[in-house]
Design a protein that fits this description.
Blueprint lengths: L10 E5 L2 H4 L22 H5 L23 H15 L3 E5 L2 H4 L10 H16 L3 E7 L5 H5 L8 H17 L5 E5 L10 H4 L10 H25 L4 E7 L3 E3 L4 H24 L6 H6 L12 H9 L4 E5 L4 E3 L8 E2 L6 E2 L5 E2 L5 E2 L1 H15 L3 E5 L17 H19 L4 E4 L22 E3 L11 E3 L1 H11 L7
Parallel strand pairs: 1-2, 1-14, 2-3, 3-4, 4-5, 5-7, 6-8, 7-13, 13-14
Antiparallel strand pairs: 9-10, 11-12, 15-16
Helix pairs in contact: 3-5, 7-9, 9-12, 13-14
Family: Belongs to the glycosyl hydrolase 1 family.
Organism: Lapidilactobacillus dextrinicus DSM 20335
GO molecular function: beta-glucosidase activity
């Protein structure tokens, strides 16, 4: 590891999402969200990709672990106290849109929902933990998907603007950091969670996906405008899923395909949200999907808005890298974060088949900073694994420590390369329901929650070995990773 100190004020912490840990899915006026309609279990994406999936909740046929999750809604004080014990400087969480606007199209917010986040923010600030709020994290109100067709409908810009304005004006005097849309580029592979699109309402028509992206870009710019006008100290970020991509070999055909894959997946959404305009390769990207720029409903006023109100920093998730191979030289495949791909023979994989590549994180940080020259924030990174509770109650998750250590070393390497990195919030700092598989058994946290995949258990919280390790890492600002 490079001998370097992390900068003073580096934001160490952890990250969660409301739909994966809060529970209380119909309490205090909260409406249903799209996450509430996604069944639990490893087949959830396959079910949602079926032409028959119509957003109906069928409790006789499926389980819905998100409905209760780990009941953070009633345990938030205990959970924040544990984060404080680890020494968190920042806590990334999301606002449940349907807790504030139950159907998404109301004109007046639900005060009980707003009060919950008042209390959550107060609890963070009590321990000097900076809140980092994701405004929309895979949890749009179900009504907006069922009755408006998701983000392909421009009316959602109006609804989101109202939601963002409510959130920013309510919390923006106490909260400095906001993100607009979680993993906005994930729609390239699976638009259900970020855009509310399934085959039943247009997911298979790429025109809808690109139109939904444009509408989200406009909505994000409007949120930036609201925030900067309300409080100039607020920092607004975008959030992308980043998977460092390698060409399978030196074949120029694969090299070119990999360059274009990086443009289309890793950079496209950030190019618009950071640079404020559509990139030069947009024509090619659209053409490869059977579209032209004339197919999209984009007004001059909207394009001007994108130019004026771009984000202040880039946040991203990084779990794995990928390989581009287009010549048929390899047919070995692996799983991944909303996307699988060709197996990289130089990497090991997690229990769920995600390839582990800490060097890819250093590459990602360099690629992003070289391209955009804005601060970067790693807001998701972690290892989903099967944890075993020993007879004495301990959880010896050395495999998680090894994973996180190697990735923190990669961050230090990038900082040494000159990259401006704001902070690091490992994903699922407390065990929660996995977004990709709907399981509790796929655990990420430093804190164990006694629940199984069927929702059975005491919900008792306990500290894993990684809890104490991360506590020490934060205390010494990353100088001792042993």
């Amino acid at each position: 590891m490079t001998d370097i100190k992390f900068p003073k004020g580096f934001l160490w912490g952890g990250a969660t999402a409301a739909n994966q840990l809060e529970g209380g899915y119909q309490e205090d006026g909260r409406g249903l969200s799209i996450a509430d309609a996604l069944p639990g279990g490893p087949e959830r994406f396959k079910i949602a990709s079926s032409p028959d999936f119509n957003w109906e909740i069928d409790s006789d046929k499926y389980t819905y672990p998100n409905h209760v999750a780990i009941d953070h809604y009633h345990h938030y004080q205990e959970d924040i106290a544990l984060f404080a014990e680890m020494g968190f400087k920042v806590y990334r969480f999301s606002i449940a849109w349907s807790r504030i606007f139950p159907n998404g199209d109301e004109t007046k917010p639900n005060e009980a929902g707003l009060r919950f986040y008042d209390h959550l923010i107060d609890e963070c600030l009590k321990y000097n933990i900076e809140p980092l709020i994701t405004i929309s994290h895979y949890e749009m109100p179900l009504n907006l998907a069922k009755n408006y067709g998701g983000w392909k409908n421009k009316q959602l810009i109006v609804f989101f603007e109202r939601f963002a304005k409510t959130v920013i004006e309510r919390y923006g005097k106490r909260v400095k950091y906001f993100l607009t849309f979680n993993e906005i580029n994930s729609a390239a592979h699976f638009p259900v969670m970020s855009q509310g699109l399934v085959p039943n309402n247009g997911a298979n028509d790429q025109k809808n996906v690109f139109q939904a992206w444009h509408n989200q870009f406009v909505a994000s710019a409007k949120a930036v405008k609201i925030a900067h006008e309300f409080n100039p100290n607020i920092q607004m970020g975008c959030m992308i899923l980043y998977a460092t991509s390698y060409s399978y070999n030196a074949n120029p055909v694969n090299q070119l395909a990999n360059l274009q894959h990086n443009q289309d997946f890793n950079f496209f959404c950030a190019d618009v949200q950071v640079r404020g305009k559509y990139p030069s390769y947009t024509h090619r990207y659209l053409a490869e999907n059977g579209l032209t720029e004339a197919d999209l409903d984009r007004t001059p006023e909207e394009l001007d808005l994108l130019k004026q109100y771009h984000v202040d920093f880039i946040s991203f998730s990084y779990y794995m890298s990928s390989v581009t191979e287009t010549t048929g030289e390899s047919d070995e495949t692996v799983a991944g974060n909303l996307m699988g791909g060709v197996k990289n023979p130089y990497l090991q994989a997690s229990d769920w088949g995600w390839q582990i590549d800490p060097t890819g994180l250093q590459i990602a940080l360099n690629e992003l900073y070289d391209r955009y020259q804005v601060p970067l924030f790693i807001v998701e990174n972690g290892l989903g694994a099967k944890d075993v509770v020993e007879a004495d109650g301990s959880i010896q998750d050395d495999y998680r420590i090894d994973y996180l250590r190697s990735h923190i070393e990669a961050i230090a390497g990038a900082i040494n390369d000159g990259v401006d990195v704001m902070g690091y919030t490992p994903w699922g700092c407390i065990d929660l329901v996995s977004a990709s598989t709907g399981q509790m058994s796929k655990r990420y946290g430093f804190i164990y929650v006694d629940l199984d995949d069927e929702g059975h258990g005491s919900m008792a919280r306990s500290r894993k070995q990684s809890f104490y390790w991360y506590q020490k890492v934060i205390k010494n600002n990353g100088t001792d990773l042993d």
